[in-house]
Hints:
- The chain has 192 residues and is mainly alpha-helical.
- The protein has helices at 7-149, 153-168, 173-184.
- The protein folds into two domains: 14-150; 151-192, no CATH class.
- Helix content is 89%, strand content 0%.
- The longest helix is centred in the middle third of the chain and has 143 residues, at 7-149.
- The N and C termini lie far apart (229 Å).
Amino acid sequence: MAKTPSNTETAEDAVAAASGSIDQIREILFGSAQRQIDTRFSKSDKALKKAAAEAEDRLADVRNDLSERLGTLDSTLETQISQVLDKLDAVQADIEQKLQAAHRELSDNLSALEKQLRQEIADQAKDQRRRLADLQDELESAVTRLDEEKTGNQDLGSYLMEIGLRLRGDQSLDAIQASIGAGANSGGEPKA
Length: 192
């Protein structure tokens, strides 16, 4: 016996047949457009993935390049800074040596000048003492000469009396000569 289809089975079959026919209608109407959209979307997706991969590669290359450049710049900077510091140290050491040499030279010059000045002062003091001694000797000699050459009080008195007599004219020439002779006598006594 053959089975008769039930209502539920026939409805399902009808829905399945209807949905299959809707899919067929949809395929007829939109199928080619949908395939084109899917193809385009697939191509766009591939192109986007390819562009993203290329951008990542470029970015990695740029990062690597920048990293290398920074490393090179860092190394160059360190080298240059080290060279500048070495030059500064050398210049500082040179300046210190020159300052020490100038200080030594100045000290030596000052010592030599001080010695020279002390010697000149000593020589001048010695010369002044010698001159003073010469002047003292000269003064003593002059004093001695004056003592020897000075006119005594009696001689001066005799000269004044003679002048007075001559002015009066009272005395004779013999008396004046006697008076002069008495003054010339070292004892101060008149000649006999």
